[in-house]
Amino acid sequence: MGRRRALCRALASLIAAAMVSGCGSPVAFYRPGEGGADEPVVGLGGASPYVRSTPARPKAADPPGAVPVAPAGGRVYAATGPGMIAPKARDMPARLYVASGHGIEVIDPRTMRPVGRFGAGAVASRVVPSWDMRKLWVADTVHDVLVPVGARSGGHGRPVRVADPAGLYFTPDGRTALVAAGRPRRIEVRDPWTMRPRAAVPLPCAAQDGDFTLGGGYLVMSCTSAGALVRLDVAGRRVAGTVRLPAGARPGDLRLSPDGGTFFVADAARGGVWAVDARTFAPQGFLPTAPGARGLAISRDARRLFVSGGGTLAAVDFRARRVTARWPLPGGGNAVPGGVSSDGRALWLADPDGLVYAVSTRTGRVLRHARVKGRPAGLCVHPQPGRFALGGTGLYR
């Protein structure tokens, strides 16, 4: 018995000496309250080592499902690559929503067959997904309403009265909806879930198409008839600047470059795109693409900008700032883009003559097409890759 006690005391002394001499666990342990949330702690009788004793409570002002605004790695489209559908939208069926003037035609993009129709009686001009992508907003500029539609059910809610909803946008943090109104010329600040009005910002011109700066603090919009761009300070609810393009310009759709440094603005009158510095708000130059350039879309790898209009689809290399391909479009019409497919292989477009089709983003060849009734004025491909939707025509981050 004495020998056993002596051995125990010797073993304890050895362990203590090893601890003092620097021998330790290969895994770093921390005292309770120190280290990271998923790191082990030392403390007998303390809280469980892999669980916070007092979990952080979300801010009351945060909208459901809010995510960080800053893009991963500083790249604007880091979360919109092939197949990067947000978890909340992965179980939604892929659909094409065509605003045909008298309602919304719903088409299965795989079979090109109609699978539904809603909004009968509404003169739909465009379909915009909500920030969380769970519902769609149908803009009716004739009856001055926005109609909410369930992305899964197809059932529509009560129309919301909005004066001439020419464009609908959502701030990257999901807390604010911005409605571009043509009559009167202003931006209406609204609740993103109920569309209840909060404030209104007068504009110097009638704006419609737009995109956000890298951090989301500003919304840059084009005023086609005035040949100008306007920059809205979202938090300050004021116009922070305007820039008038050279005489004869008619700016339309615009997109932020992948590095966040430049806005590319389509110009149907001059047949190309303007490059505008996102920081100084000064024009950097003009790149001819094809007559009638009006619609823009970005490839899934964020290397190319697609410019449609005037019966032509042009592909522009962002880094080289040059046209790498020009492809003729069916019928030579003014097709409007609705978005790039999730796998990045096809660009969907709608022609006012009633044709909806997909072209290869590699060759420009028509892959699939379908005829619809009415005169399509807008197309929405849903869902698309991204953490959230910014509204407009296929804006995702």
TrEMBL record:
Database matches in PROSITE patterns: PROKAR_LIPOPROTEIN
Keywords: Signal
Protein name, UniProt field: YncE family protein
Signal peptide: 1-18
